[in-house]
Amino acid sequence: MRRPDWAPESIDIERPSVARMYDYYLGGSHNFAVDRAAAQALIAAIPEAPLMAQANRAFLRRTVRYLVEAGVRQFLDIGSGIPTVGNVHEIAQEVAPDARVAYVDVDPVAVAHSREILSGNDQAVVIQEDIRHPERILDHPDIHKLINFDQPVALMIVAVLHFVSDDAQPAHIVKTLRRPLVPGSYLVLSQASHEGRSDEEREQAIAIYEQTDSPLAYRGRDEVAQFFHGFEMVEPGLVWVPEWRPDTPESAEDAERAVYIGGVGRLT
pTM of the prediction? Predict the structure, then answer.
């Protein structure tokens, strides 16, 4: 397979990447044949998979708008993925040009493409780091140049933790990332759940993601709720993502097929 100019030499283009599969679901172009094959296998098992990704992206958009209206001007987006239309900085800075956004992703393609898009934007930055090492994220000099932790921050962990195994202690990761946040900060989080899915669908999805760089770890609503420990939930609480303050009643239909459970919590 010929390596395109935008693909760093360090990446394995013969193995599916969850970031590039997600890019494919959203209609992006920064993915390889191996990513498309894995994504298409999931779509064969769960035909609404692209709609689920789009619903999760719409959830991110609505939460960012809510936070900007609530006065938040700093965003730390971990697991930001390959940029497509509707990134956090685009949404936030459209309403509040002074909004600052720090992106974090482990995927080199996501980071390289983000840097290209953010060139010339001194209100946004991207670093390459793994959510499994939260201290490295919090200690990174580029984060501290942009984000003032003495002021409220929106911590965005959207569609990421289902790629963090229980052995990696995801609750501890979230707790560590919460540590520097001051009252008035927020946590936005969504996670793939096995609730509402058949055993066959769940097993097929797990088998497909076992072939990638990040196996899948489904979690139930009670487990996801634990990530919000210490936060006061914003209405409507922890719900299927299409149900979180939908733009129209119709957009919340068939919410149980969304796979992603999400919510917004405020630190008081």
Answer: 0.92
